[in-house]
Structure formats: C-alpha cells, structure tokens
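Can you give me the bound-state structure? Components:
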Amino acid sequence: MLRNKSSGNGYVRAAGPNFGVGLLAGATDNFIEDNVITGNVTGIRIVAAAVRNVFRGNVIAGNPPILVSNNVPENAPFGFDILNLSAAGANTFENNTCITSMNAPCANLKSETDVIPVSNSVVFDSPRARRGGSVTATFSGNNLTNATYFDVRFRAPSANADDVALNWQQGLSGTHPISQNTTLGDWTITGVRAHQDANDHSGPFAPVQVTFSVFVSPF
Amino acid sequence: MKRSRVLAAVTLVILALAIVALARVSSSPQASSEETIGGTITATRIITQNARLTGDVTCTVDSAPCIQFGAPGITLNLNGFTITGLADPSTSCRGSRVGNATGTFNEDGIAAIDQSDITVKGPGLVQRFRADGITLLNSNRSLVAQVTASTNCQSGILVFNSSDAHIEANVSVRNGNSVFPCGGI
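Here's the bound-state model for the whole set.
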C-alpha cells in the first residue's frame, strides 16, 4: 500500500472495530508506506495473525474523531491510531507519525533536543548528614522521569580535583546512606548529568554548586 | 565494374531494409481491442479484455458484483468516471451489509476473484455499493491505483487471500458497517 488516503471509515463494533487500514488474518509480507489515515474509528488495525508487515512513514492521526471518543465510549478499547494485536516484533514500524498507539511506536512529534533529559539543579533534604545516617537528593530540570539516571561530579573534603559518580541515582529523588567511613567535611556537587540510557555517559555536566556536610554525631 | 557491384550491393541492402520495414508496418498490432462501459448495468458485467469507462455507470445489480474481471492480465480504466451502486448516498447501509464473507455473492462495485495481474486504474469513483467498493479475492499481482472508494457498506478496497497486491494512491472514505470487520482498505 503506497500513498493512499483513508479517512472517516468504520462503525464501532463490540467484536472489534472497523478501521482505516486493516491487516487481517493471513496478511503477511506487506509494505504499508506513505499513507495518510485519519478520522477512522481505528486508524490501522493489525490482528494477532498478521506478521512480517512493514509500516513505514505513514501519517496516522485523529483516529477516532473526537466526536466518537466523546459520544461512543465503548470504542475506547479500540480507539487508537495504531491498534497492534500481534506479538512484539511480529511486524516492523518505522517513522510513522501517530499520537496514540497500542504496541507500536510513534515517531517523536517533538524535536529530539526537546526530549533529551536535562538536569540543572539538585537539592538535599538537609545541608548536613551524620555518619551512619542518610541524605536525600532531588534533581530537577527538563524531561526528567523516574527512569532517568543521574551522574554527579563532586569534590570530596580536602580534595584538589573533582571526581565523578556514574549512575549515582535513578529517579528524581533518592536516599543515599552515609557509611561510617565516609570522610568528614564538606562534599560539594559541582555538576550533574541526566541520561536515559544507563550506559550512555556522553553528555556534558550541567554546572551546579551544592554542598552538604558529613559529621559525627555525639549521640 | 567494381563500383557498380558496390552500388548493386547497397541497392540490395536498401531494398531488403525497405521490405522489412513494410512488413513490420503491415503487421503492426492493431490498437488492442478494448471494450467500453457506460450507462446502467443490470447484471454483472464480466470483462475479458481491457475495458474503459466512457461515462458514469449506475449499477442495479442485486447481491452480485457490478463489474467482474473474467480474465487475467487485463485493465479496467475508470477514465475519470463514477460507478454507483444501490446503497444510500448518505448512510450507506445504515451500518448493515449485504452479501456473505466469501465475496462470491457480494454486491461489490468491482471484483477480481481467482484472477492474476489485473489492474483497476483511476482516477475514478466507486461508491455506494452494499459490499466492498473493490474486492480482490484469491487474486495475485493486482494493481489498484488512483481510485476513490466512498460510502460502501463494507471496505472501500478489500484485499483478501491475495498476494503481491499494489494498492497505490487511492482515497478511501466513509466505508464500513457494524457487522463485519472492514473499513477503508
């Protein structure tokens, strides 16, 4: 299927929806490319037995129309731009523009730079922490989630150079124990780096200057 | 003497070429025969050679295709015209459908069943059929291009149990029913 337009098709069905483009049982080895599929009760419907099909560069949006979403709530389980009921990896999806999908990726509508996680601030729940205690750090910035990893660049007490702790924290907020052999004094975080891939430490550190002190509690 | 021999040889060659050219002209294929379709169709029109619409077509065929391919390797050229079936212009079949799931008795606009290498060529509109606008059933290597399928009671274009179909640059809108899994393409 190449460069077709399919719009405004279908009725809501309890047994499964109609569609703009349907890959039904036995649909194999098809290329669905550069089509525009809008305003259908379901955009592309791919049944479980449809395999080895390639979906590339399609624009699939507005499925279903807002009127159907609001007035026909029974369509909600099927109301996607792409409804993929096949097994993961059974079909290939490349660079399709869509907004809602089930088991299929949509190409980013934002520019890539907008979705890179960036952290430019970290705060501690307390400026001081005793040996044997803990400190909670909270990062903030843009495009951060609880899956985001944070590297920190820090200066240990009396050190002459910074050091780096990779994947020091995952998630916006985390508690870090202060062991009994932690060096006493001021620990300063001088930079933070947020990243989505645990193994990707290629980005730059954003400069920060946050200090907490480790002390010995007399109690 | 030698010059006259050369002249004779050249003349012979030219003569031979002229004969060959004349033979090719006289045996050049006639414009391949092509049937024309237009007006009202009351029983399934089975085409066995290339066909071209010469005007809009109104189909009153009940529970069977309007135009059906009866031979492989041929083309139906819609030529910019419209084929219209019996469904309601605004509500199609009100969510229902006519025909069965095999396609054999479906009230399709255009049907290719057990064929190969057929072409449906637009531009052209296939609308208001109480089954599919265009059905390709058990038919391989088909091409449907630049056709608009609208307000049909099943799919605009259905490709079923067929391989190597090329469905290209078509527009499919307002097709479907609440009984059967179907839709645009």
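A couple of observations. Chain B touches chain A through 25 residues (CB under 8 Å). Chain B has one helix and 13 strands.
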